UniProtKB/TrEMBL annotation:
Its EC number is 2.7.7.6. It comes from Nymphaea colorata (pocket water lily). InterPro entries: RNA_pol_Rpb1_5, RPC1. This is DNA-directed RNA polymerase. GO terms for molecular function: DNA binding; DNA-directed RNA polymerase activity; metal ion binding. It holds the Pfam family RNA_pol_Rpb1_5.
């Protein structure tokens, strides 16, 4: 049987508390409890069939984006440049995204787009 993840690293807790102002000890513990439950639910046994679920997890959003592209083709305010090309960027881990929709500014002053 595989070990489940446990939160025992106090330095991680200190780092998170120091990184975000206003987080209480209770909020941090609740966050870690939810996080650990989600991690533990993701553990799979060797040999478990995950191919169909993986294919569905990739294919379903691609299908929905493509359908959305066709439905909003005549609307000028709608960004329809995503669909399958965006899925290809995600799957191929493209460094230079053609149409970034999120810009994240990091603490060191640099920025990343997704």
């Amino acid at each position: 049987d595989y070990k489940r993840v446990k939160v025992s690293n106090k330095s991680n807790e200190r780092y998170i508390k120091n990184s975000f102002n206003g987080i209480t000890d209770l909020q941090l513990k609740l966050f870690f409890n939810i996080y650990i439950k989600k991690i533990n639910r993701c553990i799979i046994e060797p040999g478990e069939a995950i191919g169909a679920l993986t294919a569905q997890s990739i294919g379903e959003p691609a299908t929905q984006m493509t359908l959305k592209t066709f439905h909003f083709a005549g609307i000028s305010s709608m960004n329809i440049t995503q669909g399958v090309p965006r899925v290809n960027e995600i799957i191929n881990n493209t460094k230079n995204i053609a149409t970034p929709i999120i810009t994240i500014y990091l603490n060191d002053g640099s920025k990343n787009s997704a």
